[in-house]
Amino acid sequence: MTAQPKTAPEQEPELPALPPVRAKLNQPKRALVAAAEVLVAAGLIWLAFYLWPKGVATITTVLDDGRTLVSHRYYGHWMSLAIFSGTIAGVLVVDAIRQLVLAARARPKHRA
User: Fold this and answer.
1) How many domains does the chain have?
2) Does 25 reside within a domain?
3) Residue 60 lies in a domain
4) 3-state secondary structure of 4
């Protein structure tokens, strides 16, 4: 048997390095999204103040001897809707602040 000469393994050609992918944080259109979120949050706050009084009923009873009994009845579904709308409004305001920061964030300086 004859020994075959060893050949170098074929190497793949090197590809040029791709530039790093940068997220586009500075997007001024995010300010429009923030404005829309603030408007929706204002509507939800109005809704919360509208719904809260619907959850309370005052019942006044006058007895035969002239005494007046006042009691309050609380309806949980109206109150929970008011609390829920206020909570969602708070989340929207926090996200609107985040959108404004991303809309106004300065771009990093490029190194030469």
Assistant:
1) 1
2) no
3) yes
4) coil
